[in-house]
Amino acid sequence: MTAVFEGYEKQYCELSANLSKKCASANLLDGKQKKQKIAEIQTGLDEAEALIRKMDLEARSLQPNIKAVLLAKLREYKSDLNNLKSEVKRIASTNLNQAARDELLESGLADTLAVSANQKDRLIMSTGRLNNSSNRIRESRKVMLETEELGVSLLQDLHQQRQSLLNANNTMHGVDDNIGRSRKIITNISRRMDRNKCVIGAIVTVLVIAIGVVLYFKLAK
Description:
By secondary structure, the protein is mainly α. It is built from five helices and no strands. Helix 1 runs antiparallel to helix 2, helix 1 packs parallel to helix 3 and helix 2 runs antiparallel to helix 3. The chain starts with a helix and ends with a helix.
């Protein structure tokens, strides 16, 4: 169940309970006051019908398994709304004058008590639905908070891993720099060895020539 649907559901349950109370009070009114109360109830019925349309659209946009459950609940709400409409029509069509009201009160308010009992049951049902919706909303908020905490933990882990990768990258750059310097040193040593070989070769050549010259002059004498 989505948070959007639950929000509409909570508004509808509150509105339904309020309309039930207004219907009960309208039964005891007469004349202009009764007409005003019926007008208020009719406005509330229009709002309730709009909420049901919103819930219907929201439910039909969800996955099939969730949609089936929500549409079943919507059928209950539509039945409840139809009962309220029937009750309003009954109240509006009843035009009790003051004498009829007195007679009804004297007879023990039998009809009013029967209607009030029906409305009380509907009010209890609406209150139960409202409590269930509140519990589901609390559970949804709990899940959202747990998900948020998990997301924060994952972000922290990713940040730590990123820092580790950056440190490893810096270390690799340092190793590359050391290898480069080592290569330069080895190249310089190799060049020096080549130069030393040339110098030693030249010295050996000069010595050989000198020895040859000395031997030549000695043999010539």
